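Input record (Table S2, row 531):
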Amino acid sequence: MYDSIKVYADLHPKPVNIQYQYGTAGFRTLGALLESVIFRVGVLAALRSKKLDGKTIGVVVTASHNPEQDNGVKLVDPRGEMLESAWEGHATTFANAPSSDAFIVAVENLVEFAKIDVSKPAKVVYARDTRPTGPLLIAALEDGLKAIGAEGRNEGVKTTPVLHYLVRCINSKGTDEEYGVDSEDGYMKKLSGAFRKLVTGKTPSGLLIVDCANGVGAPTAELLMQYLGDSIPLKLANTAIATEGALNNACGADYVKTSQKLPPSLSGVLRAGQRACSLDGDADRLIYYYMNERNQFRLLDGDKIAALVAAFIVDLVKLSGLEDRIDVGVVQTAYANGASTKYLSERLPVKCVPTGVKHLHHAAEHYSVGVYFEANGHGTVLFSSTATTTLIKHRPSTPAQQTALNHLINLTELINQTVGDALSDMLLVEVVLAHKSFSGLEWDSLYSDLPNRLVKVVVKDRNIFKTEDAERRLVSPPGLQQKLDELIRKYDGGRSFVRPSGTEDVVRVYAEAILRPQADELAFKVAGLVY
Ligand code: NG1
Ligand code: ZN
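Output record (zinc ion complex):
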């Protein structure tokens, strides 16, 4: 095994003077710099599979909302969840081994440290997004699998959540927790079947425009539409996956959330009262928006989705008579708008955790039904296995209870339990809007966002910024938090925090206040203190 790894590793040498880090979104940098990393990730994925007795591990080659020239890679654990944290460190060690010999030593160390029986089988399923560097990187990944003798299953171009779904299906096959048919079609059938049941008898609230960010969400949404038929009127926009430079360019969820603007390609297309949504480059983030009657753009972000969905589920749990047996909770990060936290806290328990989907996901697992969304549109709803069993076994005493129960059971099928999926989340939002007969305006009126500002500050060393209390307070550099507290106190409804980014070499400053100019001023003053 080691001889073969060495031969292949020499084909994919590590560039000198570059340090890689498996961060909250896996490895991510210029696609041209990732060949050696992805080769090594292939070997790592196979070792993880061997460690877990031949269970299938997933690998997705994507850089999500980043520019087209970037790329990245994430590993998926057997239940379709993100890679266990301890192995993130192993991934970083593998990626940074300076030579093929050093890489072999790293492999030997891991085998010994993690007590891996290398004679076990290894299975890896993988996919990529639409980036031009994808095919070359997939070839490097395949070399990694060949080098160690792992069985690979190439899923071609797929969204991140589809790959997570596939991993869960493959590993749960034949168990009593079977998750679904292990194909993209199987997933689309599952989603569309549950959606149709949930909207039976409801009137869809008009055409929904779906901005696909010129990425992998486009072909997937097209396939989904075939399964949805006339159950929902959808129109896809920004579907140019073959156009160079188009991916995430002036479109997509990140563009809309960050610039708080309509993608220029939709201006003149989206009419007053009409709503649209944007996916990101790997279709795991979703942002909604609409034009109000004065033709102004209004954003409906991840916090608004959480508010809409959590309140809907709480009502269904009450209506089905399961209030005492199923607890619903929401998980947010410090970036959640203060108004959303207030709205949600008045209705159900809300927990704040550090940034990054894995923290939200784990915290959501502590509830029977855990709703989590980042403000930027990453999120899903988790039903615990006890809750799912309770739903299936419950015998309601009235027809109204039965209807609510059926809706909850169908929601467990509609919502991706492994990771947030923009398309599944979109259908979820549409279900709630149809049930409540809400337009964008009514949804928006659940609460009014506090004006807020997010700025990036480039600092000499972001590692000196250390936080506590779910990243809401700084413990280092010493004395800085006290200065921030003094400043924040001067602003009506002021809230601000500073944290180092996990994906970029910057420090992020977030600020909100009752009035727009104050939120802006607070953000810039805090940035001044940080710089
Ligand atoms: P960082 O760069 O650590 O702030 C960003 C997002 C996270 C999450 C990750 C992973 C913000 C402020 N931060 O993390 O929410 O989505 O990327 O993609 O949006
Ligand atoms: Zn993404």
